[in-house]
Amino acid sequence: MTQVVLAAGCVLWRRSPLDGGLEVCLVHRPKYDDWSLPKGKLKRAESLPDCARREVLEETGHTCDLGPRLPTTRYVAQGRPKEVAYWAAEATGGSFAANAEVDRVLWLPPHAARLRLTQPRDRTLIDAFLNSVRVS
Fold first, then answer.
1. Cys-Cys link to 114, which of 45, 69, 71, 126 (CB 3.0-4.6 A)?
2. Domain definitions of the chain by residue range
3. Is the pTM of this model over 0.85?
4. Structural contact between residues 24 and 126, judged by C-beta atoms closer than 8 angstroms
5. Residue 114 CA to chain centroid, in angstroms?
C-alpha cells in the first residue's frame, strides 16, 4: 500500500491597501506553470498548522494568523495519494520575493482568484473560505 503524502496550506487573505476589499493570495509555480494556493509537504514531527504557516511564509513571504479550518483536499500527485489540510489565514506582515518554487503572487478579490486558480479542487476552497470566515 502506498503511503499518503501529508501536506498543509492556506487560503491567505488580507484587506486591499487600495479600497479595503477582501483579497486572496495566489502563487504561481513555474515548475507546473499553475496558479494555486500556498501549500506544501509536512516535515518530520511537524504539526499540520505549523506546516501551513511555514509554507505560507516560504511561498509568499508573509506571516499569518490561522483562522477556521477548511476542507481537506485529496488527490493523486505523481502517482501517490496526497491529503492537504487547509486553513483560512489572515496575512499579518511580510512581503514577497521570488524564489525557486514561486516566481509570482497575485492578490485578487475572491471571485477573480477563484477564476484564476488552475485546479478546480482549489476553487472549492475559496467557496469554503467565504462561507467560514467572518471578516469585519
1. 126
2. 5-132
3. yes
4. yes
5. 12
